[in-house]
From TrEMBL:
Keywords: Membrane, Transmembrane, Transmembrane helix. It is found in: Membrane. This is Tim17-domain-containing protein. InterPro entries: Tim23-like (IPR045238). GO terms for cellular component: TIM23 mitochondrial import inner membrane translocase complex. One of its GO terms (biological process) is protein import into mitochondrial matrix. Transmembrane segments: none annotated. It comes from the Eukaryota. Residues 1-39 are annotated as: Disordered. It is a multi-pass membrane protein. It holds the Pfam family Tim17. Coiled coil: none annotated.
Length: 216
């Protein structure tokens, strides 16, 4: 009944609305059966973990850049560090020799610069003199040792390839030849002196390597 019907006394012609029945859920769950229950996530995922790899399905034989180098490491027959051949020995030997000689030469130049430039000099002049001494001695020894080490490793690897083994004899002979070649333009006497020095250093290194790094 509306407000107008109440004021005029008119009866409403609308019939009362019947109540809406509430919905009922007639679903009956099935009884639990342990034999059919999922035991792990792999039972319903059914995904192969290998298929998730970004390179899954690719043929490695056709991809050259995925092929790993199978060259075995030589653990100590040529040098103190693991090596795959003469190229590794050349890099190791030349680099270590250059850096070691550069450090020794720098220390030599520092001591020489401090001795030749007394503390009574102006600070800037003394610093300049010390730096000049360091840059004169350090690169000189470093470059010389690097060249000798490069020639030595090349000759040592060649002798080892011809003899079929690497021992102290190879090191001494390679040291003598590389020292002689390094001073070949200075005459016979400097060649003999340089040959003896490098051969002695190579022999000492060969004995040290035999004692501390040889696994045989």
């Amino acid at each position: 009944m509306t407000i107008w019907d109440s004021l005029t006394g008119r009866k409403s012609s609308s019939q009362p609305t019947a109540p809406t029945p509430e919905p009922h859920d007639n679903f009956t769950p099935a009884p639990f059966d342990p034999s059919t229950a999922v035991q792990s996530t792999s039972d319903f995922l059914q995904i192969d973990p290998a298929a998730l790899h970004p390179l899954a399905g690719l043929n490695q034989d056709t991809l050259d850049y995925l092929t790993l180098e199978d060259t075995p490491l030589d653990l100590g027959s040529h040098s103190a560090l693991p090596s795959r051949g003469w190229s590794d020995d050349l890099c190791y030997g030349t680099g270590v020799s250059y850096l070691s000689a550069l450090t020794v030469g720098g220390a030599w130049g520092l001591a020489e610069g401090l001795q030749k430039n007394p503390a009574s000099m102006p600070p800037r002049l003394r610093l300049n003199g010390v730096l000049n001494a360091i840059t004169r001695r350090g690169p000189f020894l470093g470059n010389s040792a690097g060249v000798v080490a490069m020639v030595y490793n090349g000759i040592n690897s060649s002798i080892g390839a011809m003899r079929g083994k690497h021992d102290i004899t190879n090191s001494v002979v390679a040291g003598a030849l590389s020292g002689a070649i390094f001073k070949s333009t200075r005459g016979v006497r400097p060649m003999m002196i340089s040959s003896g020095i490098v051969a002695s250093v190579a022999g000492t290194w060969g004995i040290f390597r035999k004692v501390y790094f040889d696994n045989e």
